[in-house]
Design a protein that fits this description.
74% helix, homodimer, mainly alpha, elongated, 9 helices
Chain lengths: 196, 196
């Protein structure tokens, strides 16, 4: 009987294994050969899903962000205003060992997205969506009279976006500085600066 | 008469040309061969100064930061407190076309620094120094009674560091969003959030 391959399962397996290889070795050291050999697949079994390592990195990044978006959707409940903003940011910031590991993937992906239109479109899709979340949260805070009167919502959304990206950099490049305590304090201070 | 080579001049020439090539093509597409051929040097004339392209990227990054540090030192005058903080951040943020171009170099370097100890040490040296500047500025603001009473200086220094890094990401990956106006508003809002 011919072997039946579950393609979606295999794709997920590749993405998850490559994430671990990037975290361990760094993206530049990843080759299609290492990936195939570590997974015990023939080279062609990888290229069937991903033509090159850049395509896999984009899929790994996309996967991290799908996970983050599920986390946001799951815990959101009836949250609005600053509670909602806190929830979204806490889901995106690089908390814990997993967060610091993922930050290494994020940095490799950003470097690719500076040079590759397809990767760049993925970056813009995600950051654009999150910016809408921030704007929604701040608009709700204004409706609820909890937003400080002189806060400009667009400027504040820019600040939140920059802070979230900046913490990824620190988490990847100087992980001892990025403890959960410091992340929590910084997030509280940022949100606090918008409160009436 | 043998040709006399000014090694420092040649080194500077290589670094400046490679910056332009990274901005134009992206770091992944840079090869030692392209560099040598665009500069009209023999391959060996490049490797004499830099053993590989990672070493050149580190030198280009180091050069950007030496330039930023000179800009900070030149304009600083008698500035202290929030004036000093504004001056330092304005020198680091990706203002203008040059700032957006340099941000592409910064992202490529960060990706390297996540995988390479030497590059990582350069990153930590610079960000560590800037963090000291932020701390100094906030400490002076506290002495001058211009710092809001509930601001924790370490947390605020973390916030400023994250914001500065985050704007590099946006400048490289979504340059139309990073106008001088938006950068200025975000910097003013961040500093404003620390003021008494």
């Amino acid at each position: 009987m011919p072997k039946i391959v579950d393609h979606e399962e295999r794709r997920i397996h590749i993405v998850s294994a490559v994430r671990a290889i990037i975290v361990r070795d760094g993206f530049d050291r990843v080759t299609m050969r290492t990936i195939a050999s570590e997974l015990g697949y023939a080279h062609g079994a990888i290229t069937r899903y991903f033509p090159n390592k850049q395509a896999i990195l984009t899929a790994v990044f996309q996967d991290l962000h799908d996970t983050a978006n599920s986390r946001i959707a799951e815990g959101v409940g009836e949250k609005r205003g600053f509670d909602y903003l806190h929830h979204v940011c806490a889901s995106l910031l690089p908390f814990g060992r997993r967060g610091r590991e993922n930050a290494r993937v994020v940095l490799a992906f950003w470097s690719l997205a500076a040079q590759d239109d397809e990767a760049n479109a993925v970056y813009r899709k995600h950051t654009g969506r999150w910016r809408e979340y921030f704007t929604r949260a701040l608009t709700e805070a204004a409706e609820d009279n909890t937003l400080r009167g002189d806060v400009d919502i667009e400027v504040a959304a820019d600040e939140i976006s920059a802070a979230n990206s900046g913490w990824q950099v620190a988490a990847a490049l100087n992980p001892p500085l990025v403890t959960s305590e410091r992340l929590t304090h910084a997030l509280d201070a940022l949100i606090g600066s918008f409160r009436a």
